[in-house]
Amino acid sequence: MTEESACPSLVASGSLRVESIPFSRIPGQSKLFIRYQTDRASLKEFYPNAPETIYDVAEFAKQVNDAYTLDRNEVADALASLNNGLDAGERVAAAIDRLREPTTVAVFTGQQSGLFGGPLYTIYKALTAIKAADELTRAGTPAVAMFWAATEDHDFDEVASVTIAGQDESIHLTYHSADERDIPVGDRILTAEIERLIGELELRIAQTEFSRQAIGQLRDSWVFGEGFGRAFLRQLAKQLGCFGMIFVDPQDAALKRLSGPIMALAAEKAHLITSEIQKRDARLTEEGLHRQVLVEDEYFPLFWETDDGVRTPLRLTKDGVRARAVNRTFSIAEIVGAIAEQPDRFSAGVMLRAVVQDFLFPTALYIGGAAEIAYFAQSGAAYMVLERPATPIVHRQSFTVVEPRHKRTLDAYGLTFDDVFADKEDVRTQIVEKVIGQDAAHLFAEVEEEINIELRRLDEYFAAVDPTLAANLATRRRKMLYHIAALRKKAYRSEMRRNSDADRRLRRLFGELYPSGALQERTLNIVGLIDRYGIDVIDWIYSAIDLEDRGHRVVYL
Hints:
This protein is α/β, with parallel strands linked by helices.
């Protein structure tokens, strides 16, 4: 991607039609998340710095700059080296230089290093952070957008698969690694398997004028011999570098060394961190809200890498800190000493990750998903124990992209977007009855009416002759109507199969707008959209962001 191919200055704002629907209308949303989106003030106990507007973030930014203790030039030098290695581009270099200034703050987001970029919400997170940084800057608080790739995570199965919308059906791909150890994702080196996957995708993807561009980005990023996490960052740099987003790999040696003091302090105060998080958990339970992570008495906020590279959890015991993978126990003092000598062997657990990030960088705002908002309700206790201000968090923009082919299907069958949340069989029944099988619908309605008429005649007869038989008739009526309904369902399915075009279009509609019963952004990948619309689709999404909208945004291309 060239510097000129996808930049906010080229966005034709206002060219897309966007609808917003409240999350309360979307199945599966947690009570905590809904409440955070609609009534943040009531959750002040868990989110003391929860912002209502961008101006609240600007006020918090003043605290951040006053409290920031690291040498900005040293941090910026580490970022410059890292991003130069990703070929992130001149705009990223300029953003890093702005971070050297004492008044500049960071708007952060992050995600696991998913195959070919992971789910769509990875891009949505990044673009939301970019938009927030832009708005903060315009409001008088210089800000840069930054992306933290969770390369230290070791749950490889969670990031090794991808789903890409093809021409008529979704394409599911999985990278199979021969190394079964629980090593950090960033330490996994790509084999020839990656070339096979890209080749398979190239054959199966919709062949368009943009296919070469979409596949080319992957070939340039996901290269044999490259680290899995670094390949992920290379792809993001190609897609987002021209927005000036700075990329962070927490495995970077210089950043590891700089994060040593906060990890050592967390180790020293591990018992207190655990205790305070548990108190938070109890309060969440009292409020009828869920906790995202179970924090037990033996919880320790750091992971440690063994001599053979396995990332293993550490656990508090009465004798010290136990490394489960090697059955070895350390004292707290030994852990602190090891962090000073070999910081690269330690990484933050989920309750400490944001604290480490905000120690390294002057973070004024974090952009996260619903799960991360829940994490912050708990991890705020770690901020408190370590005497750091709890970073504000806002939800990333949430999108469903409705392509013209989806809109044509919705219109053809009289559906609205909300119908994708309904039971698929109910929607098919609605379409048969109203559009493609009206004769069958009328026939069943007439038969049911005739049966009910005749049964009412019997009911009147039994009422006069033997009332005890009326109850028996009611039972048999229910059975008859049940069997008629079952026959209707089978007939409607036959009507749908006979109308193969309708069946195909509906399968694609549900498979791409609400795949596997979840929002599109949680399953599908950006490559399919780039293949059909080119890299400019990223600009279109950026133009659809409205930071004041706390609902789910439906974007019609």
